[in-house]
Amino acid sequence: MKADKHVLWVEKYRPSSLDEYIFHDESHKKAFQQMVENKTIPHLLLSGVQGSGKTTIAQILIKELNIDPTDILLINASDENSVDFMRDKIKSFITTFAMGEFKIIQLEEADYLTHNAQAVLRKYMEDPNCPARFILSCNYENKIMPAIKSRSQQYRFKATDRDEITEYAAKILL
Question: Per the confidence metrics, is the pTM higher than 0.85?
Fold first, then answer.
């Protein structure tokens, strides 16, 4: 039996490199390529509609930067969004020794974070000794406090063009 028999089709064929990813904006492509070439990233805020590629580009960056799995913390803020959770989980993660140059804290659905949780997050982002980079993704950028936006490099994603998706699917099927 194949190991990937029960993997969702969308996960099985999700783009896994910058070359496979469908960029809507050439400046985004250049910026992400530059991050990979420089082997570092700033704090990122990825916003846009569901299915626009925010999580995919975050996963690609992590993969292409060759981040050790022990240096990655994934938090779904729609489930875990309290100030206590943020303090405890993030603090315990960033106080451990990094296996690589830096750690990644990937916050999915960051627009669900409470105001106080965002204040804690801002504190960590401001700390020059913090060994982590934050990748925040959200659908509603207006729910993210301005202080976090100003400390992040922001990228807005549009819905993927149907023709581009059709072309990508055709390549998979060939």
Answer: yes
